[in-house]
Amino acid sequence: MQAPRFERFKKYFSRRKQSIEEVVREATAGGVVFRLNEQKQVEILLIQDPRERWTIPKGHIEEGETAQETAVREIKEEAGLSDTEVLCWLGKIHFRYRRLKTLVLMTTQIYLVRAKGDTDAIKKEDYMNSIQWFPFNEALDKIEYEDIGKLMLLGMKKLRHMRII
């Protein structure tokens, strides 16, 4: 008796990912950082990660730190901007990813942050591919994460409401 034809293909379908053995929660914070250019138009600061994805400056909340303090620190560390002003909280986003046998559930608090002083003096960290100011609409097109894009739109609405633009 001959083995069914699919038996020889079974090896291609029997590979399984390692089982999730641990679920961890991570809290992060960051900012939609903006400036007004000479024409009084909003520009957004984006960083490009090693996987070529454009996103906002953000990072892990350290012990004893508030989410807002983390956002300000991460903007300073990742972009070199030390003269900033947090205008308001925009919201939080949730996402998950897998790290080997660990499922990471991440919550990121996002703030609307005005860059002040010499905003052209941005500097990227070594791990980044790039850092750049973009006109708002271009930044919205480049942002890799839909949830952050929605918060950017909310930020523009708040800037109009505050009569900043």
From TrEMBL:
KW Phosphoprotein (keyword) present: no
UniProt-recorded Gene Ontology molecular function terms: bis(5'-nucleosyl)-tetraphosphatase (asymmetrical) activity
InterPro entries xref list: Nudix_hydrolase, NUDIX_hydrolase-like_dom_sf, NUDIX_hydrolase_CS, NUDIX_hydrolase_dom, Nudix_hydrolase_domain
Coiled coil: none
Residue span(s) of domain Nudix hydrolase: 24-158
Stretch forming the signal peptide: none
GO biological process, one term: ATP biosynthetic process
This protein's UniProt keywords: Hydrolase
Top-level taxon of origin: Bacteria
TM stretches of this protein: none
Annotated family: Belongs to the Nudix hydrolase family.
Full protein name: NUDIX domain-containing protein
